[in-house]
Task: inverse folding
């Protein structure tokens, strides 16, 4: 089962700046070899369900190891069985509609 | 790693009523033996990370088997390492604060 | 436009315990007179769109006033035009499906 | 109160393809004059709270007008009072951390 997720990991108890923790998650995601795109409020990742979810778990583990005592994550999870669809296809589909009258 | 999640599975391409699909997810959650509480916009589930995430995957699989070609899920995921906390503890903590002046 | 939301306000920069801030939001919601139900990972609120969204804004304002320098909120927002539906109807619909064979 | 949101509008009861409805939301957002960035699982928008929330409401109204009987939206909402921060600042902050050893 192929999945596209939007991952937003929020560490609590580490102060107001969380850039360091988010960067650590980016390194975990990068190391996984999965396709991903960071945006201003999360990161889109795609791939086989188990691989993507292993990355989400590894992010929580990494951020706890860095000293964050608590984490709250918001995750959107999209699957479809009618056809294969990748992150760039979703953006392209909307842009196609935007260009038609 | 103990986790408390809030799971909201939304099937697309099955019409406007999704109660049947949500009920199927409830049966998957119930069968897992994990603690859970349904509310009007999702279901809280808690337990070991891998068990809870296996249930989320099983919900997607079940809803696809029922004929939904596409699913978008919103999942909140909470972990903490400073102390053990259960769903009822979170509600009780807020209620304690509400009762103090 | 009637709306049912699921609101989860997360203050950052105030330490690991956020029960006091969540309780303050509950007081803001209670004072609004809108229907609501708290659960372990947020609060369902329903009513006219503008009234519910005014409460969400008032929660951010209140939590900032309490000293939280940063807030990240996750909000699910449901509207429908085919029929009137309330929070308890959603739960009842799922329970009806659970009781049929 | 300045806000950065991540908006993901999901129409139900319109079939499996929602690109047309998402494109209509993009037009609503574009017409608002607010800063925004689309990604594969939503759109980041920033600006004054009331302006951004008016756009979210206008998206629901527009998608209902197009015939969708039901909508479920997931919205992340970030505010901070300690300093001004824009979408590009958040991405730049993470990238700075990624470049340091």
Result:
């Amino acid at each position: 089962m192929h999945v596209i997720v939007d991952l937003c990991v929020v560490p609590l108890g580490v102060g107001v700046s969380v850039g360091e923790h988010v960067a650590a998650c980016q390194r975990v995601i990068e190391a996984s070899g999965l396709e991903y795109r960071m945006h201003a409020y999360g990161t889109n990742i795609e791939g086989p369900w188990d691989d993507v979810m292993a990355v989400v778990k590894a992010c929580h583990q990494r951020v706890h190891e860095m000293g964050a005592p608590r984490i709250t994550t918001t995750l959107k999870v999209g699957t479809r069985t009618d056809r294969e669809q990748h992150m760039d296809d979703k953006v392209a589909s909307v842009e196609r509609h935007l260009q038609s009258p």
